[in-house]
Fold this protein.
Amino acid sequence: MRSVVSAEWLKLRSVTSTYYALGVAGLMVVLGVVWSLYVSGLADERGSLRAAAPEEGFLPLVQISLAVIGVLAITSEHATGMIRTSLTVVPKRGVLLFAKAVVVTVATFAAASTIIMTTYAASRLIAGERRLGFNESSFPADVPMLLASVVSVTVLAVVGLGLGAAIRSTAGALVSVVSLLFVLPGIANYLPAPWNTRVAAFMLPNLVPQLTGERLSRRLGDGVLPPWAALLALLAYAAVALGAGLHMLSKRDV
């Protein structure tokens, strides 16, 4: 198993697309610095200002960018035909997919942690003592939200891997990931009450704040999940996607 994981790690770090995806995700730091400078300038003029924290406002950029890594970890092999070689070397398809999941999880968790924490530190350093909305709490109080954001990015990358294994199409898997992150939450808001709040509570974007116990009364009324339920729901996305991917990978010829 260790040799399979090592091989998958070699594949991941030897393709250019991995570094492109990491570079796009890293733009969060640049955008966070620009946003903090802009908001700090406004705060100097007005004396007080509430603004969205950059590590939260630009989180979708990191989620989508690193989800690409999960998708390409499997669909690139289907596109090039390399999947035949991989399955010849590792005939147990479950072992192959599990090894890919391990590599994608570790890589995206490390990348997301670095990017999000760097953005957080840079924005607070720039803000200094200015009265900004995203500078009101201390670092210990912000740790749960930062960890929740990192976990959401990691889970979405694993979801991308599972969908890529199931669909075998880069475009199709990416459209599915985008739909989970942006389209379905919007559709849920138009469902008749109380189903709109109940369904919306399980949507990926709304699970991140619920992991920290934050109430979403303005968007979801009282239909919010406790942190443990939000975590289970988030992990269920990854489990279902990987399960679907394993089923289709085992069922179909390559």
The chain has one domain: 2-251.
